[in-house]
């Protein structure tokens, strides 16, 4: 996403916790919440982000209302957990390419306490940071779950249309189905 040339590099703390329960089957990880998501204290809250329309299409349902509680219920009902790779970092606006000094979230406790059997990352930076920061920690904790990188649903990824994103995200439903009810 383009940033204003005078935008400052800010130290940002994630600010809200993961969405999950003991019956979660997959974990979907972004990099760091956008300013709109941090403001709303919930995931994928920028009005142009296509995450929620994609997930709704996958499950054949209407897009959940823009309120965090409706989206939380949707995620839990469909057995996908949400969190981000990064707990804190230096970042300019919502620009993943500007991320510096990333500190990862500790994913092990929720993976151990749930039925999560697959991790998906949304966007190239989330995948890169997961491989570098989270995967080694999980391996040292004796946790071996596969990770599949997915394209970003951000408006910055304008080259991918909604049908293309929905097709790419079909693997999420397949992973949920492999571990129980979709």
TrEMBL record:
Gene3D superfamilies per the UniProt record, alphabetical: Uracil-DNA glycosylase-like domain
CDD domains: UDG-F6_HDG (cd10032)
Domain of life: Bacteria
Domain named Uracil-DNA glycosylase-like: residues: 16-170
Family annotation (SMART domains): UDG, UreE_C
Protein's name in the database: DNA-deoxyinosine glycosylase
């Amino acid at each position: 996403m383009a940033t204003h040339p005078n935008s400052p590099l800010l130290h940002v703390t994630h600010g809200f916790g993961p969405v999950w329960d003991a019956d979660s089957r997959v974990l979907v990880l972004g990099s760091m919440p956008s300013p709109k998501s941090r403001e709303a204290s919930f995931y994928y809250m920028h009005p142009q982000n296509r995450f929620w329309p994609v997930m709704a299409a996958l499950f054949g349902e209407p897009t959940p209302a823009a309120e965090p509680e409706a989206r939380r219920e949707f995620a839990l009902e469909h057995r996908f957990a949400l969190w981000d790779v990064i707990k804190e970092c230096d970042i300019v606006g919502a620009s993943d390419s500007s991320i510096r000094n990333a500190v990862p979230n500790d994913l092990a406790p929720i993976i151990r306490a749930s039925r999560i059997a697959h991790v998906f990352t949304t966007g190239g930076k989330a995948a890169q940071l997961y491989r570098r920061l989270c995967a080694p920690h999980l391996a040292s904790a004796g946790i071996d779950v596969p990770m599949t990188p997915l394209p970003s649903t951000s408006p910055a990824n304008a080259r991918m249309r909604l049908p293309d994103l929905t097709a790419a995200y079909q693997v999420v439903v397949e992973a949920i189905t492999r571990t129980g009810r979709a």
